[in-house]
Design a protein that fits this description.
Layout: H1 5-22, H2 36-44, E1 57-64, E2 70-80, E3 86-96, E4 108-112, H3 145-153, E5 157-161, H4 177-191, E6 197-203, H5 205-220, E7 225-232, H6 238-245, H7 252-264, H8 269-273, H9 278-287, H10 292-299, H11 314-319, H12 322-330, E8 342-347, H13 355-367, E9 372-377, H14 388-396, H15 398-409
Parallel strand pairs: 4-5, 4-6, 6-7, 7-8, 8-9
Antiparallel strand pairs: 1-2, 2-3, 3-5
Amino acid sequence: MHLSSRRRKSVVVSVLTALAIGFGIPGMATSAPDDHGASLDHFYDTSSLVPGPPGAVLRSQPLVAAGGAGAGQRLIYSTTDVHGAPVPVSGTVLEPRVGWGGPGPQPLAVIGPGTQGQGDQCAPSRIFDTGFQHTGTSTPINYEGIFASTFLAQGFRVFVTDYVGLGTPGTHTYVNRAESGHAILDGARAAATPDQPVVLWGHSQGGAAVASAAELGPEYAPELNLVAGYASSPPADLLAVQEHIDGTGLVAAIGYTINGFLARYPELREPLGSRLNDHGHAVLADVATQCLLDSRGKYGGHSTSEWTTDGRRLDEVIRDVPVARTVADEQRIGRRVPAIPVMVTGARHDDFIPYGQAVGLVRDWCAQGGTAVLNTNELPAVNQGSGNNHLAPSAVDYPVGLSFIRDRLAGIPVRGACTV
């Protein structure tokens, strides 16, 4: 089932408006109550919880999504870290206010959010009922809410993970391949009804999480009824992405990545930490508490060469530290094959995630016998380095991805796979 041109335009306008709000265009938003975050702290305190089997719900709390598109619950659920240990993670499950009008049973859309930041206040589940919050020192904004609302408006059930350590105690293990994929799949386990069709959706950090989940699904969660995935602008090769974003508005994401590495791989602390200068250590500590807007405002446009003792960029340093290079290489997506069809979108002029990441991922999967479709966004470059050419395609290509998802739910054969 394909969207009409009028409906497609409406979806794009809605998403672009939400992205404008999400990136702080003046006059587009007002502050949510300052005490909102503080009132939730007890919910996210997992010190008294004992993690259960993957997907087990450990705690829940009702909420109504901002805009009224759906109501549901915040959840604390169990997942598995990269070393196989159970850990609690938070997320949001939402029920639509309209019925499912498509063929077959009502599906569950599991969304992997794009980069939120690394501070606990940035977790989407904390602000699904308000949409945003301004505390005076931080500005978390749930710009994934518009994608969730669009799915809800069509009768999908929706689950949005916060990822490990975002909201809950501990360091958010940003773009950790295994933990991102596990959080997606265990979120589906927590929210899906028996045999419910499950589709996976994500952009940027979320695109990588969805791609990882699609690869890990057959082994990690074989009981799930996974139907299709949509991975938009996925950072499949972290070192290549770090080199690309160094000096742009997203440079702080390199700090998020390093913080996540140091939290999970103690063997990195001396060889990598010794190559950071005092300013580099201070930046890592700072971004660990920030949301994306905070980090962009403070560090955007700077280079990680300012963080190191020898003045080299961090991607160059990592390549020269064998244990760090090994850890980065372990995050590579594309070495396993998904059992479901996946559309991978890449923007030719993306200023954060190189277009070659999408092309390479499709080639890698297809070489192993997977079913992957490359969708290329051809929007012209505007103000390179600002993120415009990374964000706009997420809205413009939403209807394309939605049609791909709905066609798979309808049992329509995939067309155009592996033509790269």
